[in-house]
Amino acid sequence: MTPLRTHLTLARASNLPTVWSNILCAWIIVGGYDPLQLAALLVGASLLYTGGMYLNDYCDREFDAEHRPERPIPAGLVAATQVQKTSIALLALGFATIAAPTLLQSPFTAASLLPAAFAAGLVAAIVIYDLHHKGNAAAPIFMAACRALLYLAVASAFENGIDTNNLIATGTIFTFILGVTYLARSESTTNAIDYPALATIGAPILGAFYYNRHGFDAQQTAILALFLVWQARTFLRARVDGQLVIGKTIGPLLASIPLLDLLILSTLSLATQTHLIIFATLFALTTATQRLIPAS
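Structure (tokenized):
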């Protein structure tokens, strides 16, 4: 039997709290109220994320054999066929978990198809990215789309649907993940610094200033400061002998996603003290588990 740690490594399980953060952020924006619906979205998103990570390792098994031999497949910890079959099962279950509640509701309407459509788009983006990301300059767009589609799948499950706030959140996470993914492309090979990617990672900060251009309240200032301090810490601690080591930035950048979601809610004037505690906890959980399970 394959050890649990191997499965957790394949799943990049340390990043799961960032997926929960995305779902919860979208849920708060749309005004969700049914805890069972929230649970279904959290489980479905977790299954899709995990399935995508398994598929990523399966597709990267030859690359990893050369550049990352410690990964589970090249290390001989798990069979490639087992990883492939597990990824397919997880993706199918994740899609069904998100799509079924609205498809089975009564009365059935055309709007009931939207969560299923976004979930299907999410599965497609995952598969396209995993199959074609090596050497493909457009691949990070599909990775960013994976996170953005989570917000749209949540928003579309409600009667009031997708509004301006949903689109601001979707665009913010898309931009941030796009930058992180472009930056990560050199992690295992050249370690070259992608300056446009760095600018893209910083774009949500400019967005916060734009949407709060009439002034920040104390809570908004504190949340923005927390996000800024973590980003600064990430790049300062990733320097070795004066040189930035890209691989040391990816995990901390991914860990900051709950802080980014909190910043989004704060920017939209939707953040409460309870939200601050919840998203800070998700951030802390991510950073703690990344010490045990590789984030990328």
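Residues 4-290 form a domain with the Farnesyl Diphosphate Synthase fold (CATH 1.10.600). The first strand starts at residue 239 and ends at 240.
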